[in-house]
Amino acid sequence: MQVGKWSEVEAKGVSEPGASGVTIRVLMGDNVSAPTFVMRHFEVAPGGGTPYHSHAWEHEVYVLSGKGKVRRKGGETDLEAGSFVYVAPEEEHNFVNIGTAPFVFLCAIPTKKSYVR
Amino acid sequence: MQVGKWSEVEAKGVSEPGASGVTIRVLMGDNVSAPTFVMRHFEVAPGGGTPYHSHAWEHEVYVLSGKGKVRRKGGETDLEAGSFVYVAPEEEHNFVNIGTAPFVFLCAIPTKKSYVR
Fold this sequence. Notes:
The structure is a homodimer.
Chain A (H helix, E strand, L loop, with lengths): L1 E4 L6 E2 L6 E9 L8 E13 L9 E7 L2 E5 L2 E5 L3 E5 L6 E4 L5 E8 L7
Antiparallel strand pairs in A: 2-3, 3-4, 4-10, 5-8, 5-10, 6-7, 6-9
């Protein structure tokens, strides 16, 4: 068992092209030898956003605080604390802060070794 | 893509022996054909707790609100909003509300089809 607080985990800037003002903390992944999936904590600064992209794995997102939106091909939906978002494999998406405080969410993905389709 | 709020998802009582005052909402699972893992939302009433047990799959837990503790063989740790807990496969554990408000957390598990060891 491993117990911690999100704020104790090292924060890293996301430098992927298209990312702006995004910080990631990997809460449970390689550090706990997670077999199947990885839970990450994201903070997006006001005016910032994650890259608009797609990939072969899914996301399961839960919003902790702030105001944001998720964008997809042909639409977007506002998000707030308590919102959840399932992004299917290969679906285009990004997350944008539309408020004045940090937009904070959990985003879980499969581990590489569990990712077999 | 599927977007929702936790409060819009049907709440079900947990009737497993040893559970007391526990409500579950499956936010992302069969409803979104989740390939690899399932995100569930739990509320534990004051004085309540989840069963003390073990099983062959892992948990990844993130506490949203309230005061609780996680118990394991030989120890326990207090939890509050922002705490996370990794419970390894086969590790004994339960979650108990030690406060006066609901103890609320996310708990993700692998899907049955991804659960191959």
